């Protein structure tokens, strides 16, 4: 026997499948030491919504205080911990280079956004970690700045990040910016 919630879910799934307009995210699971998280679209939207509660908060080196300040990697760490209970290092180089944190997402050299999913950590080459400038290699750099891929809105690919030359938490399109040009590596935390 179907209950009301099941009918709504079936109807929504049928509408998505029938129209082909929206691609439903596959259900993956990620585990931290104490939490299992399903990477449904709804959960990933909660991740972005949580981060957006800090829009405009000032960039402050080595800080992780909601409403007061973050640096880039403390921001990404805080968003995951406060949304899903997933804890990982608050150092961008560790987030980028540690094999214990997430798994690599291949950056396509012709379309850097092609393989990204909402919630992926994005790493950028910069003066703090220039690497060799190549995509997806262990020497490509990308430990200097980190942000969170926030998806596509009106055909634009968005990033949620702190700093990145903005001195605060921002949610903005990446096309035609330093973010698009300097993106060299990505990691998927929730699978």
UniProtKB/TrEMBL annotation:
PANTHER family reported for this sequence: MUREIN DD-ENDOPEPTIDASE MEPH-RELATED
PROSITE patterns registered for this protein in UniProt: NLPC_P60 (PS51935)
Signal sequence segment: 1-24
Gene3D superfamilies assigned: endopeptidase domain like (from Nostoc punctiforme)
Residue ranges annotated for the NlpC/P60 domain, each copy included: 41-190
SUPFAM superfamilies for the chain: Cysteine proteinases (SSF54001)
Source species: Paenibacillus glycanilyticus
Protein name, as recorded: Glycosidase
Parts of the chain that traverse the membrane: none
Superkingdom of origin: Bacteria
Family per similarity comment: Belongs to the peptidase C40 family.
InterPro entries recorded: NLP_P60_dom, Papain-like_cys_pep_sf, Peptidase_C40
């Amino acid at each position: 026997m179907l209950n009301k919630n099941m009918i709504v879910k079936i109807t929504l799934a049928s509408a998505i499948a029938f129209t082909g307009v929206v691609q439903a995210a596959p259900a993956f699971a990620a585990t931290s030491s104490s939490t299992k998280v399903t990477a449904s679209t709804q959960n990933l939207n909660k991740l972005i919504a949580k981060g957006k509660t800090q829009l405009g908060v000032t960039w402050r080196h080595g800080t992780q205080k909601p409403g007061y300040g973050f640096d880039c990697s403390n921001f990404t760490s805080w968003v995951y911990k406060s949304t899903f209970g997933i804890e990982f290092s608050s150092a961008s180089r560790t987030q980028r280079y540690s094999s214990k944190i997430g798994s690599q997402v291949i950056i396509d050299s012709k379309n850097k956004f092609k393989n990204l999913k909402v919630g992926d950590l994005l790493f950028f080459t910069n003066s703090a970690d220039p690497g060799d400038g190549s995509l997806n290699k262990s020497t490509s750099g990308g430990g200097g700045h980190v942000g969170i891929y926030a998806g596509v809105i009106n055909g634009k690919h968005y990033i949620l990040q702190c700093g990145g030359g903005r001195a605060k938490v921002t949610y903005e399109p990446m096309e035609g910016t330093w973010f698009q040009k300097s993106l060299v590596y990505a990691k998927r935390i929730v699978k």
